[in-house]
Amino acid sequence: MKVSLFVTCLVDQLWTSIGMSSVQVLRRVGCEVEFDQRQTCCAQPAFNTGYLNEARQVAKRFISIFEESDAEAIVSPSGSCTAMVRHYRELFADDPQWLQRAQSVAAKTHELSAFLIHVLKVKDVGACWQGRLTWHDACHGLRDLNVRSEPRTLIRSVRGAEFVELEHADACCGFGGTFSVKYPEISVAILDQKIEAIERAGVEAVVSGDASCLMQIGGRLSRKKSKVRVMHLAELLASRATDFQG
Amino acid sequence: MSTLKRNSKAREAILGSIRSHLAASVPHDTRELALHQVDVSTVSDSDRVEFGHKAPAGTSLIDRFKRNLEAVGGHCFIAPDEAGTARALTGIISDLQKTNFRAQRIAISDLPVVEKLMYLTDLEIEELTVTPNASDIFGFDVGITTAQAAIAETGTLVLDSAHERHRLVSLVPPVHIAIVDASRIYNTLAEALALLRTGKEISPTVTFVTGPSRTADIELTLTIGVHGPQEVYVIVRGA
Amino acid sequence: MNHFSSETFRENAKAALADSHLRGALKHATSLFGERRREAAAGLPNWEDLRNQARAIKDEVLLHLDQYLEEFVRNAESRGAQVHWARDGAEANAIICALARERQARIIVKSKSMTTEETHLNSTLEAVGMQVVETDLGEYIIQLAEETPSHIIAPAIHKTRGQIAELFTSELGMPPTDDLVQLTNTARTTLRDRFAAADVGISGVNFGVAETGTIVIVENEGNIRLTTSLPRMHVAVMGIEKLVPRFADLDVFLKLLPRSGTGQRLTAYQSFITGTKREATDEGPEELHIVLLDNGRSRMLAHPVTRQSLACIRCGACLNACPVYQQIGGHAYGSVYQGPIGAVITPQLIGIEKTSQLPYASSLCGACREVCPVKIDIPRLLLHLRGEITARSRRSIRERLLFKVWAKVMMSPSLYRMSAVAGRIIQRIVPISRAWTSGRDLRPIESRSFRDQFVQKGDDPKRRDGRGVPPLQNTP
């Protein structure tokens, strides 16, 4: 199957190994991966802050680029960005033509774990990673896309990994986009509750499906000089060696 | 006079505001429909209530009522007949007399059956008054009433003020004893609501009572008996 | 004193975060409420159906609110109730004041009513010399403390048992004790005097039934029954959105409200009041006055996204589920309605000028939407309000410029590339956003972006870069 990778601006600039790992995993399970160099952002920052005109411009661009692709699916290693594409229709309520185009693109866009499980019907991507880890449910992936069992199924087939369910795995990490810098004290207060749960879980790594959550959680763990690492699901699934270099 | 005028002005203003804002919403509603497959569901007919005393298979309504009442801290006694009810009442009150609840000044509702039951108990008490008024009711230890119906799924008593003068007697004294006919126990809340709606108009005041009064306002710790009764006893009669 | 304003939300929040007592109380309360709600909902296998039904009923009422209100009033009046219409809080207060004066009321007992807090009724009555006594234990406590509620259904959860005990000792002369039973008894005894002496009882309304003109009020303590049974006049204040069409509809809401609010199957008491007593000798008040309050509610009908705010049944579940509320509590919102529902209702009731911070004080996690018994899409509402705020130029020039630049960059691959290059340089010389780095380490922009690596690895790129690529069809 041919897929078009929607890598997201965050991964593109700040966490390229998530992108590389996603490509590796998709290829390993037999996909041909295309990457359209013209892509930039899904418009989430503008949409969430209320700048709807700006969001609409950037959304139209996204739609125009991806609707040209002959790939059968658009796959992204981000629940929130995938959810954003699903929300595009709210930007085009007044424009039936763009609404239609937005719906078509949205219908083909999938978050990585949901794509593996539901479209490719793959549970085991041949990964191995030694150690104790846990999973943080990123809010948009969980509540907008209903992604909950898929990452857990994929993680459970990683050889050598001991999976521990995190207390309140579905509690927000406090990122919330611009919220994290508009209300940093509240953001960190919420984050610390997540950190405490992670520490109590006694794991070596916390895995999630969204780079934004990983930045938030990882940023606090490293500030606290914690030994716990953060890892994206794609990075976990791409690992073959016992010693993963994130 | 001017109050009435002012109020009809306010009425027209509010209704007018509602109408104009609803009208303004129409184009947005249309767009919203285009965005989603809006489920314009209405209350499903499958919830239409059937009258009757059906209980889940294997459990009697009385058992279910008793279990649910006890789960919220109420006490339930079952009596086959009037004599049995009187005996239960005697037991309850004489036990209470040994406690701080005293149970010496008893207030009863105006239904003759309650007064009759009290005579059958032949208890030693200081005072028995039928529906004390608002200024006197605060001095009583126990209030005894009947209940017009009960709800099994929640352990609830249905007190209908049109049938019995029990509003204050069931509320003010720290102990409330209620007698309810086994045949008046309904399975669900929906059935009880339907019962209240049948026939003529709804009574001016209907109260659902589920166990004793409670609060968790202090540190979320449960305390029983705030403004309403601290103890609720229900005698199911004619089972 | 803790009368905060929503204009100082950020400062309020900071103060709350620094209050370790408060944070402990909030953690305890919200997790307990949350657990109980979860269990109670799990106990009903058709929970999702009930939510859908409840929302459908509310949508039906709101879409025809004028008709249902007229039906309600007609039926209530035919049973002896006197109905008053109040366009805003001041009008409601004036009506109630006049009624109390007619009665020459000196003592007024009140049961918990958010609507009367919204209109600041108490201070209006007190200003004309009446004594107003809150009878709900939590409300009574904060009234004594001269504070405002910090949670919709548990107004005093920010106070510890010790603080309450001290309060009772100093205000009521209670001998010092920490014992809960003693505390409750003190309140009970003190308040019983007030009930006995009260001339007027004021309550809120949980549901008004259009079909019968009935008002329904739910409680656990018994103070509502006392407030509405003993005094000779009962005044019930009801927001115009509180209607349900039919008596039978109450079943759905009586299943959802207690479970969502406190995790109970049913609260201890539900009072169904329809008009006034039939005989003068019957028990109960001589007069029933229902005050219908608009105060900005009718405006919310103008858009489907905002109209859903009016479906709220004031259960408080969203507060307990909200990661922001869990950290800062209710006072920080500086308004009567707090937490997620407060963040969307308050700007609509009061206007966005004074409340523009509130819709941004959310990570948009969606936990509120998940627990709302009537399925209000609060995140969508927050975004809608954010859109209003930017459209009305309520954001800083700097931010507006920032997003204009952002859009330009995101529209052009070459600008995007350049901004990444610039970013890599800037991050080395300028300390980035203190707002982030005060608590968290910041991940640096990588020296080579993904798209450069992808190309360089010699994989077969479909389109290499922005240059030399045919223009997009249907360019925006």
Could you state the CATH homologous superfamily of one domain in chain C? NagB/RpiA/CoA transferase-like
CATH topology of the largest domain in chain B: Rossmann fold
CATH hierarchy: architecture of the largest domain in chain B: 3-Layer(aba) Sandwich
Helix content of chain C: 40-55%
Strand order of the largest sheet of chain C: 1-10-7-4-2-3
Overall number of strands of chain C? 10
Helix content of chain B: 25-40%
Number of domains of chain B: 2
Strand content of chain B: 15-25%
Radius of gyration of chain C: 27 Å
* SSE order of chain B, one letter for each helix or strand: HHEHEHEEEEEEHEEEE
Quote the distance from N terminus to C terminus of chain C: 55 Å
Indicate the radius of gyration of chain B in whole angstroms.
23 Å
Query: If you consult CATH, what is the topology of one domain in chain C?
Result: Rossmann fold
Regions with little confidence, pLDDT below 50 for 5+ residues of chain B: 38-54
What would the average pLDDT of chain B be, to the nearest integer?
89
What does this protein structure show overall?
- The complex is a heterotrimer of chains A (246), B (239) and C (476).
- Helix content of chain A is 51%, strand content 15%.
- Chain A is built from 13 helices and eight strands.
- Residues 242-246 of chain A have low confidence and may be disordered.
- With 239 residues, chain B is an alpha/beta fold.
- Chain B folds into two domains: 1-40; 61-237, Rossmann fold (3-Layer(aba) Sandwich), CATH 3.40.50.
- Chain B has five helices and twelve strands.
- Chain B has helices spanning 2-35, 61-71, 82-97, 112-121, 189-197, and strands spanning 75-79, 105-108, 127-130, 142-146, 149-151, 156-160, 175-181, 185-186, 205-209, 214-215, 223-224, 231-237.
- A six-stranded parallel sheet of chain B has the order 1-12-7-4-2-3, sandwiched between helices.
- In chain C, the strands form two sheets. Chain C has a six-stranded parallel sheet with strand order 1-10-7-4-2-3, with helices on both faces.
- At the A-C interface, helix 1, helix 2, helix 3, helix 4 and helix 8 of A face helix 1, helix 15, helix 18, helix 19 and helix 20 of C.
